[in-house]
Amino acid sequence: MTVGDRGGLKISVATLMGLGKVSSMPGTLVSAVACFAMLPFCSTLTLVVAIALTFPLGVWACDGKPDGAVIDHVTGVWVAMIGHVTPISLGLAVPSLFLFRVFGLIKPFPVSIAGKLPGGLGIMADDVAAGIVANVILWGIRWMFMGQTPSFMSVI
């Protein structure tokens, strides 16, 4: 790859080195890999740093929606995990992943609105919005059925 070959670099980043092109369900595959790969390191701080790094990179790489782009799914599932999944509370990883994929696929409001933003920003924003919706819904479920509420300590 030459210095001027930024198109190839963007595609490599957007597709996670081609991983987004190997499956008939690349979004689900990559979301699951991102979710479970993060588990040994999972803390709110780690997730926030990872999101802060992958979001702008994804906006840049997904401009023009390269075929097989999946970096948006990585960022979105990590948003869904914030405050729910830590190395000592791994049991909520699957519900975080499941809810993220549901809202990422059906795209309810506000996910559908976020996806209308231009270029790579819209591609990344709709999955971040799906992650936020999944996160909030999971807190609601935890509150209703487990009596758990978000606290300052749960998000550090």
UniProtKB/TrEMBL annotation:
Membrane-spanning parts: 29-57, 77-100, 121-145
Alphabetical keyword list: Membrane, Transmembrane, Transmembrane helix
GO biological process entries: lipid metabolic process
Any GO molecular function: phosphatidylglycerophosphatase activity
Cited Pfam families: PgpA
Keyword field contains Transmembrane: yes
Domain YutG/PgpA: 13-141
PANTHER family documented for this protein: PHOSPHATIDYLGLYCEROPHOSPHATASE A
Protein name in UniProt: Phosphatidylglycerophosphatase A
Organism encoding this protein: Dethiosulfovibrio salsuginis
Organism taxonomic ancestry: Bacteria, Thermotogati, Synergistota, Synergistia, Synergistales
